Amino acid sequence: xxxxxxxxxxxxxxxxxxxxxxxxxxxxxxxxxxxxxxxxxxxxxxxxxxxxxxxxxxxxxxxxxxxxxxxxxxxxxxxxxxxxxxxxxxxxxxxxxxxxxxxxxxxxxxxxxxxxxxxxxxxxxxxxxxxxxxxxxxxxxxxxxxxxxxxxxxxxxxxxxxxxxxxxxxxxxxxxxxxxxxxxxxxxxxxxxxxxxxxxxxxxxxxxxxxxxxxxxxxxxxxxxxxxxxxxxxxxxxxxxxxxxxxxxxxxxxxxxxxxxxxxxxxxxxxxxxxxxxxxxxxxxxxxxxxxxxxxxxxxxxxxxxxxxxxxxxxxxxxxxxxxxxxxxxxxxxxxxxxxxxxxxxxxxxxxxxxxxxxxxxxxxxxxxxxxxxxxxxxxxxxxxxxxxxxxx
Length: 393
Description:
Blueprint: H1 12-21, E1 26-29, H2 32-39, E2 68-73, E3 81-84, E4 98-101, H3 111-121, E5 128-131, H4 138-147, E6 152-155, H5 157-165, H6 169-195, H7 201-214, E7 222-228, H8 235-238, E8 250-256, E9 258-259, E10 262-263, E11 266-272, H9 277-294, H10 303-318, E12 326-328, E13 335-338, E14 352-361, E15 364-374, E16 379-381, E17 390-392
Parallel strand pairs: 1-5, 3-4, 5-6, 11-17
Antiparallel strand pairs: 1-2, 2-3, 7-8, 8-11, 9-10, 12-13, 12-14, 14-15, 15-16
Helix pairs in contact: 1-5, 3-4, 6-7, 9-10
């Protein structure tokens, strides 16, 4: 699939409607995921990997963070703008044309003043401005309030999450491609396990990472692989990468691969060799929970009601009631809505929702987890794989 960097991913008309409902004239985003979503530009600098990238409090030149802001007016006749340290990474590579550089060390490029200038240029100095309250530094917000005394500031997070929950076709294309890549990684790892007896957990995880980077993806968001035989001394309990994967092991797998900014959450159970009848029977209960939940997911149903159906079934068939059974999926692995007892979000067509079901027997844990898009009448998995227990032989 051809990915166009910096393309507009969201629906402008829907964004304007949601901002109107929230009483906002402008959304000013500052959280890295929201900035990536609004710019359509994903870079190692603004992403979660490598792990050090999001821990930096200063840029290489000594400039303080945060490094980026995006302003999206409700009025579509007004252009969006971005203010960023190292703005060259976006200029000419992003659908937003008004991109201003900023640096806290240089007063002529002070980020707050650059934001204020952009707001005043659009005649929004008296506007209702939405900011991400939990991700906007207090000092920055205080200075914005001082320099824009006639503006009002409110939390933009609810409106932004409503925007992000419903995916456009451009976003869905990235999600589907991410799952295709994840399927190939799993298949190649299963082949390697079959051909290399005694492969360790660390070697298998290393293979997953290698395949992801060779596919042009950043390092895996996560790549869990836990061999289980019911004992308390295997990698599931110890996390030891030196543990060998042996014939008869039941593998709990979960793969978070990022493709063009969008992640998978892809959990499976595989057995190296033939599965016992006891394992098959216990795993089948997990499949039945998944199928029961998938059957009730459709537009107009509340997230908490989907949870209720799944939790009731778990309680009847497996004797436990999980705290949650899924979540939204997109730029982040865990997004709203959540399939929990307290989330009353009404599901909509275009939402991507993960069904996440766990179970187990005799000290062995299972996980069946897929993302799926809500269509006009159903939940449709993003993976072409079925739900069957995988036997590597």
